[in-house]
Specification:
mainly alpha
Length: about 130
Amino acid sequence: MANRTTAAHRSLTFLQVAIGLQTLAIFFQAVTAGLLLSSSHGEVPHSVGARVMYGASMLYVLAAILAWRPGGGAPRPILYASGFLILASVQVVLGIAHVLSLHVPLGVLMFGLSVQALGQALSAHLSQRSGSRP
């Protein structure tokens, strides 16, 4: 039983790290988007950041699956992570097509959703942690 609890805790921590990395990558994208819109020096960092953000979204899906498997919890985080990967895919397509009128607002939405998911994951961790103390 203790082994199963430890595995579930590790998976939850991995999920939190994955969401945090995704949120950080999207914030980096916002910074480099500002550079890109104001000068010609932001193209390379924004392009590299897009790849990192997409990879972080895939890592979020993997972490959600791994967090669900050992604990037998609800599959809702997998749906959130998959939905976010779909949004990231749309974001990449819009960026390549230079449709800024949709690309920029979608980026803002993605950042807000990622911050919200990170907040929920951290609050779940804190409530679980405080509930386990005597």
